[in-house]
């Protein structure tokens, strides 16, 4: 399967999808760790996470998919949200919590 099609399916399969370096329990970059921490602070228990360090085609493919040059990348309900800076800003403004509530993944 084409990598862009694979990404499309991954993003459609779960309400919250994070492309990151490492895993939620063992992030291998501070930017990825920051997004995981913010999601947990929002009260999110579970989300889909893909480790781009285990798949070079995914690491490159995800940059093309969103036309965004860096990892991490967060998607909510199929929509690209942003990387660590944007996620942090949206958390501080409360916008991220709103999006997660709308997605039905928060209590
Ligand atoms: N300011 C970015 C920081 C992320 C970033 O700079 N990521 C770099 C280093 S981890 C990256 O993905 N570089 C390309 C690569 O490693 O493939 C954000 O808000 O997410
Ligand atoms: S791996 Fe070095 S900044 Fe992310």
From TrEMBL:
The keyword Iron applies. InterPro entries: Glutaredoxin, GRX_PICOT-like, Monothiol_GRX, Monothiol_GRX-rel, Thioredoxin-like_sf. The keyword Magnesium does not apply. It holds the Pfam family Glutaredoxin. Belongs to the glutaredoxin family. Monothiol subfamily. PANTHER family: GLUTAREDOXIN FAMILY MEMBER (PTHR10293), MONOTHIOL GLUTAREDOXIN-S14, CHLOROPLASTIC (PTHR10293:SF72). This is Glutaredoxin.
